[in-house]
Amino acid sequence: MQNRPTYTVGSVDSALLLATLLQQEGAMRVTDVAARVGISVSTAHRLLGTLVYRDFAEQLSDRRYGPGPVLRRGAVQQAPVAALREVALPHLRRLVDAVGETANVLVLAGPDVRFVATVECDRVLRVGDRTGRALPAHLTSGGKAVLATLDPAQLAAVLAPLEADESAALERELRTIRRRGFAVNDEATEAGLTAVGVAVPAAGGVAEAALSVAAPTARCSRDRVPVWAAALGETAAAIAHELADTAHPGG
Fold it and tell me: Distance between CA 32 and CA 251 in Å, rounded?
């Protein structure tokens, strides 16, 4: 039995309660949220906005709010992902220093990718922190890089929900990704954002992970893409090597 702690942070408790209600009870109106959680309508608006931003909720066409991707979609293995994040962060910082743009590490979770760590560059105009967010794997650079490594049965499960023409186009793109070793997201997930991604070689119990460099499209000239891809490939190899050493010390 869990008792309410005396040190509960009100806004955090309300947000967690709201996320639980959306997961268990489905779509709700703002006024319903205010009544169920015991907060004002304006506070309900702010909480819902934050949950939408973090993919715990999404606004539906009828203006209600339902559970978002984090509450609906595939889970990730916590222990390997925690190890991946710990090992990857120093490498991401060095990558950001080298390329001058924001870098991410992400893992495949069902048909999506989940961002598990971000290191932002220090430019005024930059791509922000994506940690915790989930996006369709077939649209993101890192997601496509991972999809290109899957066996036919795994890939078929991801392609199954897509329309026939979209699936065929993706399969053609994946063949190109396998040949050149990196993937590109050219404003497929967000207007004005371009990203380059590579898969992280499986090591240390971590599979189906990727790295990406994301930048404002205006700064992403064609000659920079192979430079970023090369830096990403070196970083991914270094992370995989360190993960293997961590999993098998002295081996």
Answer: 57
